[in-house]
Write a structure and sequence with these properties.
This protein is an alpha+beta fold. The protein has a domain at 41-108. 32% of the residues lie in helices and 11% in strands. It is built from 3 helices and 3 strands. The chain has helices at 4-12, 25-52, 94-97, and strands at 64-69, 77-81, 87-89. Strands 1-2-3 form a 3-stranded antiparallel β-sheet, with no helix packed on it. The radius of gyration is 18 Å and the shape is flat. It starts with a helix and ends in a 31-residue tail after the last helix.
């Protein structure tokens, strides 16, 4: 059986990520974000909720639902848009959570979604 106190303690600890030699700078960014998350994840989650009023960063729809919350209360929340199916965690950088900073090439208009081709269904597995 898992000790819940130990699990909560380990969940709060930061893994120190360091960029490897010869790796792109993006790897260093992941390490910086991991340290930033531990420094103030609770405040970041609250500010995301109140700051944007739960509007989808990608399509600006208000049809947002909470998918799940972190095992350690108040650390992060995962949201999902029912209109465009975009999902994000409250602790992600602003370019992923703020509709005004979301990259223009990736934005969607809800009225255009009906024009997109239908994704084919996955066929059943063949039994051999």
């Amino acid at each position: 059986m898992v000790d819940r106190g130990l699990s909560a303690h380990l969940a709060r600890q930061a893994r120190q990520l360091r960029p490897a030699a010869g790796q792109p700078a993006a790897d260093g960014r992941v390490a910086q974000e991991a340290r930033r998350d531990v420094e103030g994840a609770t405040e970041m989650s609250r500010s995301e909720d109140s700051k944007h009023g739960l509007v989808c960063p990608r399509c600006r729809s208000g049809t947002i639902e909470v998918l799940t919350n972190s095992p350690v209360e108040g650390v992060w929340t995962i949201y999902s848009c029912k209109t465009c199916l975009y999902a994000w965690r409250s602790t992600e950088p602003e370019e992923n959570t703020d509709p005004d900073k979301y990259p223009e090439p990736f934005r969607l208009k809800p009225e255009d979604l009906a024009k997109f081709p239908v994704v084919p269904t996955i066929p059943p597995l063949r039994r051999s």
